[in-house]
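If your schedule permits, I should be very grateful for your opinion on a structural question. I have a record of one protein: its chain in single-letter code and its fold written as discrete structure tokens. Kindly check, if you would, that the fold set down in the tokens agrees with what the sequence suggests. I remain grateful for any guidance, and I place the record below:

***
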Amino acid sequence: MLSVKVPDNLFTYFDQAGKTVTFSAGEPIYMQGEHANLFYLIKKGRVRVYYISSSGEELTLEIVEKGRFVGESSFLGHSVMPTSVSAVNDVELSCCTLEHLYPYIHQSKELTMIMFQLLSFTCSRLANQLKRVTLYNRFERVASFLLDETENPDADRNITSACIPYSHEELAVCLGLNRVTVTRVLKRFKEEGLIELQYKKVIIVNREGLANVLRDTKLTKR
């Protein structure tokens, strides 16, 4: 699935429509249930989108990077935020209302098209994540995530077609698994010759083998 992002040359529209805000790693940007009146364009860093259950359990839905939005619920009147968002690392965002952005949407056909594409892309990403966390076992979750994230290299996140620069803890957060489980799965994949492990990096050496994890029950049942 090809990633869609707001290019740097369009950032100026959001700067003119709103203001720049910054958050430190781990700091909440907004919480589930808050009034949805602002949305954010990520200019630098990554944020985590997650849902908090009534028992306090957190389910990570997506890690969102530079050039994408969070807070799209503000596009609807009188709505609330259905999820919470916090900074993964130090982030810089443009914060504005849809009303203040309207004049610039009318000015730029490119901006309008990008916004529609981003909304569609977000829906597709969330559908994939829902499938991953509800239908896949631990081996399939990790294999699917590694394949999906490296399908389209992303220089902003230092992701190549064969390498994802995430720690075991970061992978665990993305996949709704605990760190020990992720470490065990990665160790098994390494033993099978599917990946190599470096400090805060997973390197894919057998992409077809990882794809077979999603089709083959032999590995996943062990």
Notes: The two ends are 30 Å apart (CA to CA).
